[in-house]
Amino acid sequence: LTTSSSSSHQKKIKNREKGITTIHKHQTRIVEDPSQIIEEISHLTANSNELSTCISTGGLEFSYKYFFKIKKQLLEKQKNGKHKGIRYVTKIEKDNIELAKTYLNSGIQIRHVKNLPPMSFGVSDKEMAATIEKMEGGKKIQSLLISTEPLYIQHFTSIFEEAWKNGIDANERIRDIEAGVDLADIEVISSSLRSQELYQNIIKLSSKEILWIFPTTSAFLRQDKMGAIPLAVQASRKRNVKVKILVPANKLVQEKVQQLKQNCISCPIDVRYIEQMSETMATILVVDRKDSLVMELKNDSKATFFDAIGLSTYSNSKAGVLSYVSIFENLWKQSELYEQLKTHDRMQKEFIDVAAHELRTPIQPILGLTQMIYSNIDQEEDPSGKKQQQKELLEVVIRNAHRLQRLTEDILDVTRIESQNLSLKLGQISLDEIIMNAINDAKRNQQTKQVNLLYHQHDKDNTILIQADKGRLNQVISNLISNAIKFTEEGTIIITSKKQEKENRVIISVKDTGIGIHPEVLPRLFQKFATKSYQGTGLGLYISKSIVEAHGGKMWAENNFDGKGATFAFSIPMLKK
Amino acid sequence: MILHGLFTFILRQANRILLVDDESDHCLTYQMILQDAGFKCVSYTDSAKALQEFTPNSYDLVILDIRMPKLDGFALCEKIRKVDRDVQIIFITAGETHYENFRKQYYPEISNDININCLQKPIRNEELTSIVNMTMTRKEEK
Question: Whose C-alpha in A39, A190, A307, A472 is 20 to 30 A from the C-alpha of A457?
Fold first, then answer.
């Protein structure tokens, strides 16, 4: 029923029917005498076999004041099966709970609807009556449209049924109100045009604070273009509204933000940059901690808000809105931590760099020049044996310079490991080659002891390929071998490689016949400074284990079952063929 | 044997190396090692001065420290490359990954240049001479 058609209809009726009070068949009239209106409604009610009313909250009071008695009679009739019952659709709020209860207790059915139709009406099986008046506080109706036209009756019946279908049971509603459950609007908006309208309106109405999370840089730029961000800036400038924005950064966004801040230096606008979230694909807006609007991103590649936005959810439910506030605040704090962490990380890297530079620098001339003098002496004739003595002294210097160099590299490694800056240069490498190189190096450096080095390869037919950092893995194997040599006076050190196809890994073990692991050291073997040797820093195994773990492997050690020596082993993932 | 040694010595004399390192002790060390191996070396501790006095096509190899005041090794390398496209360049640094990243990020044209190598300090004498030898041979083969 549109306003224009009803008003033209009303005019017609007015001209034709003015002053006539008796009811004729299929007539439509306007009644403008308040007491007459009460009579008309009483008549409609009393005459009904079925009664449905859709009414404003004021109307419910009006209805109670003048027609409750008649309704009680109808309910009596209903008990005897002579009436089909009375149904109400209205809006139940804190103020009219008691009235609603009175209705319910008498046997009238009520359903609650948040958004009532603009017109209050009652419709029976024979007649309908409608008014646009709100009847605040039970005020009498001044003008009533009343009709017996079947088309009108049908139309209003169907409006009623639709409202009834969407209504909430009054008892449930009353329980919610009494339990203090927030009575809020939650609306799902599928039209992006409506979202846009609502979006702008909420920002325009802001008075204290706007919290904003953008999922992508394009979302930010799009919504700037659409006018949402300029509106917020305006709110900030005119009403001193605090604006807090979380957005992933790129050059365009940063430029825009810069520009925005320059345009209004004194505005309380704060922007923090976050990592682009792969999961979150919605813009979240919270205004004054009262309204939230979540706009889902449908297609980030689109240029306009209209095309990019999918479903939106508006809410002013306290619990819902405050959850978004806390999500925002958590991210806000997190972004601060993230910035601090980045700075911290950068500083740590810088420290490692400076420390490395400063520690390595003095070693170069010591080692380089002593070695040069040493090799020059080597070529000279030495009848008195004095040069031989000098050579021996130089060897001490060289050995200690090397030791200093190793210590430097170990300390740097520990720093890298502890600051999570140990980076691997991964490549496809042959394990045999690395083991053979490490063994050969060890043999070259260790000629004084009666120790045999053997490589026992379990799988002779094919070479084992692994994805690893060549230098780092060499460091691990060399460390295990040199440890084995250090604690073995004489005997054999066996290095074994063995594939474990099922686990897709290879186990490398170094077994010696030395003194074994001291029981005191065993529980903290792989921790820093755990050593019984007076010639080591106790960093080697800690570093080796960390390197192996960085490759996705494990490292362990045990004393041999036969009571002689120890076995150190580690696993490393194999390359899938 | 002696003749052969003399021959390589003469050949190496033809190979001139420019050394730039703000640590004068390092300059001295490398110069001693390389001269001992028979190469002819010119060294600078001031990178800006090294650039100022650089004459194209007069060196076979340039060895550069990275962290230097005024003009760092990368900047110097870039400027040298502009005037001398053939000279071999070796960086030698006591620094860390920071420089690796720096190199990759700001000087892609440098890191893609196969005539550029990067070594870490402290370097063993034999290693330095063998790498310099290899680099020279590569240059001669070209």
Answer: A472
Least Cα separation, residue B141 to chain A (angstroms): 29
Which has the closest alpha carbon to A516: A479, A482, A566?
A566
Token look-up 């002013």 returns: A316
Q: Give yes or no for A363 touching B (CB within 8 A).
A: yes
Can you state the angle between helices A318-360 and B97-106, rounded to 10 degrees? 110
Per the rule left: phi > 0, alpha: psi between -120 and 50, beta: everything else, A34 is: alpha
Q: Spell out which residues of chain A touch residue B93, defining contact as CB-CB under 8 Å.
A: 357
ipTM above 0.85, yes or no: no
State the sign of the Cα–Cα–Cα–Cα dihedral A71, A76, A78, A82.
negative
d(CA A569, CA A262): 62
Tokens of A37: 């209106």
Q: What is the DSSP letter of A277?
A: P
Segment B99-125, tens digit of pLDDT: 565 555 555 555 556 666 778 888 989
What length is written for chain A?
A: 577
Minimum CA–CA partner of B23 in chain A:
A361
pLDDT tens, position by position, A423-453: 888 888 888 889 999 998 888 877 677 888 8
**φ/ψ bin of A207: left (φ > 0), alpha (ψ from -120 to 50), beta (otherwise):** alpha
pTM of whole model > 0.80?
Answer: no
